[in-house]
Amino acid sequence: MKVVTGREMQELDKVVIQELEIPAEVLMERAGLGVAENIYKYFPLEKYFKVLVICGPGNNGGDGFVCARHLWDMGYKVKVVLLSEEEKYKGEALTNLKILKKLGFTLERVSELRQLEEILFKERPQILVDAIFGTGLKREVTGFLAEVIGFINKNKEAYKVVAIDISSGICSETGQILGCAIKADLTVTFELIKIGHLFYPGKEYTGVLEVVKIGFPREVIEKRAPQREYLDWKWAKRIFKPRTGYTHKGTFGHVLILAGSRGKSGAGILSALGALRGGAGLVTLASTKTLQKIYSTILPEILTAGLEEEPTGEISFNSLEEFWKLCEGKRVLVIGPGLGLTLGVKDFLKELLKKIELPLVIDADALTLLSENPEVLKNYKGIKILTPHPGEAQRFLKISTKEILSNRLKATEELVNLTDSIVVLKGPHSIVMGPDGRTGVNSIDEPGLAQGGMGDILSGLIGAFLAQGYEPFLATCLAVFLHGEAGKKLHQEYGPFGFTATEVGNFIPKLIKTLEEGKKP
User: Fold this and answer.
1) Of the ranges 99-108, 233-242, 336-345, 511-520, which one carries the lowest mean pLDDT score?
2) Exposure on the CB side of residue 81, measured as CA atoms within 13 A
3) Which helix (H) or strand (E) holds 25?
4) Quick one: which of 268, 363, 352 has its CA closest to 306?
5) pTM for the predicted model, two decimal places
6) Cα(446)–Cα(463) distance, integer angstroms
7) Cβ distance 203 to 443 under 8 Å?
8) Checking CA distances to 110, which of 202, 322, 338, 364 falls within 20 to 30 Å?
């Protein structure tokens, strides 16, 4: 499935209506019916009977008219409120308004909050349908309509709220709230998930999300929608490559990891664990000499390489030549977790990137050091995968974390352009974006992953899939999905938090087994 912005969905609408000549009335009919069917599914007549449909002036209001008609036909007692004059309705919305009038619906025109209060007090609906604004809203909601939204939210305990397409007031491009927004219990959207449904704070206003097909041909979506995939089980099963035939450890690649320093030894262990659990044939963990015994004791399955170190407990610049030789014969280098932030480490990285062309997975301390000179990354000839959280991203972009979170897609694109890299902007529904424009939006939003060490597991896991020969963008997306899904499953088993990065790493093989069997857990 693709994920789109409201603007991109409008472009698809034009293709379907203008080029294919599928009548807009047909699409609206199927949309309104889909909403009504989902209301019946979640809020059946046995328990819910009275419905109030609040319609704005555009096509979202038109969808509301169709929904009202079908709910009435199912047996609900339906009341329709208009927030605009009837003369303002055009096209298919006007057509469906006329149908309601011919069926004898009483349409209540409301222009003051007092009038809506009186209707709600009199009718006492159990379900309220939000058909005020659609995905095309760009400006802040103010005045009377802001009062309506505030009143609906204030009295929300009295009824269930169902939003048509997107909760009114959410920016479909970013998930930001345009002044105010309706808090829905259920949102029924059409054909494709919108960015505003997934990214915070919009997600908190969406409730349960259902996607209804309304007649867009699959081929049109595949060819004309943006290259932005929703990373879920269906996607992962399509990408995953089962192992078959004669193989040996060399078949699945050798991951080299440069990580860890005094006080941060665990970062190297966790990256190596992620690479092992992701299926790499061999894993070498390079770090300071004093950490070698710890590493080989905790993870005897890995190879270790001890490098000269500084009194600070971080690798020495003098070990550069030795490490350069270690890079020979490796398929990927994971670099950064727990590495340290001294000037010596910074110079080490700068010179190393001049000497090698290995695919790189760059995380944590390496991101912080390289953010001071992004041109080093842009000039690097090999494949680069960056895995910043918003705090690390702001060091590259020189803007606040708040600005990054206000438009995560834009921030990710700017990072890609700045570094010419594949970028994983971590967080709820992590984003993966490549220089060619391909994008993945993870289906997982797991707060239990907000704990130290989780990113180290992810960096090793990305390295494992790269080493096994997955195309770099797909390797990154698959690792991001499985990492998130592992957190989700541990949440279900243990509760919302308290599971560890080690447990996330150790859960990965169970998910890979499920993919190999072609089942959804």
Assistant:
1) 511-520
2) 24
3) helix 24-42
4) 268
5) 0.95
6) 22
7) no
8) 202
